[in-house]
Amino acid sequence: MNGNGRGLAPGEVLDDRYRVVRRLGSGGMSSVLLAEDLKLKGKYWAIKESWTGRAEEAGEASEEERARRRAVMAEAETMSRLSHPNLPDIVDVKGPDRQGYLYLVMDYIEGETLQQRFERQGRRAGEEEVADWALQLCTLLDYLHSLQPAPLIHRDLKPANLMLDGSGRLRLIDFGTARSFKPEQPADTVCLGTVGFAAPEQLEGRQSDARTDLYGLGALMYYLLCGGRYYRPGAGAEAALPAGLAPLVLRLLRARPAEPVRAALRRAMAPWLRSWLPEGFDSPAARDARQAQARFGGGWLQRLFF
């Protein structure tokens, strides 16, 4: 993972409790480990192991390493205070240790990433399937964008950051690029995101807000519906989409829509998504929709996002 020592290996134990079984995956400066709980028999956890850089007290940390440590610590703080059905629960935070590793202990989700599912299906995803996933992400984004004292903007909705469990429920598993919205700030401190899914303002260094995640949702839907193609503005973009979902996806992909467009999107989103979830369609999102409709009435989804 890096040239500055190593993280935990299979068989090693974290904090006298979590014994590493195997490495589930890795990327950049982080890995995800499967660990057995030595106190709760039969319980397994996923542990995100992130290298934060050398300790500042050692007098050797570079500015890049200090920035990395701040980012990793911010992700740990962010994830530990969130609670939503489409997020993993964080149960413990350990470190950074002497080697500079920080460990986030969270729910182990038995399943696969949305990217793995997409590849396994031959880079194809059904329209109802995509509408269901989008509806789940709508409820999650509504939660994140409603946080106080400041909305949380994720800024990196991509298939590799979404886990799909056996019941069909999505979990957003990476908050390394998330930030709180600061209305007085004209630009983001750091430009982050993934090319192909990042909104124009991210790539241009401008301020990101809730509309950034709307664009990211549209880019994700476009990618899944178009066989893994990234969205590129132009006449051919609409032709590649299924006719029924095209208007919604293209509205989401409007670069920095004005307030009236955003309001129209809010009104249109729920009907479009629900039209692709036929009566009898069963999924976590469909069940949540039925429960919310019974509790709040038929217009509840139209209040999503803002």
Automatic annotation (TrEMBL):
Family statement: Belongs to the protein kinase superfamily. NEK Ser/Thr protein kinase family. NIMA subfamily.
Name of the protein in question: non-specific serine/threonine protein kinase
Positions contributing to ATP binding: 48
GO MF term (any one): protein serine/threonine kinase activity
Keyword tags: ATP-binding, Kinase, Nucleotide-binding, Serine/threonine-protein kinase, Transferase
Classification via SMART domains: S_TKc
The species this protein was found in: Paenibacillus mucilaginosus 3016
Residue intervals of the Protein kinase domain: 18-306
Signal peptide residues on this chain, from the entry's feature table: none
Annotated CDD domains: STKc_PknB_like (cd14014)
EC numbers: 2.7.11.1
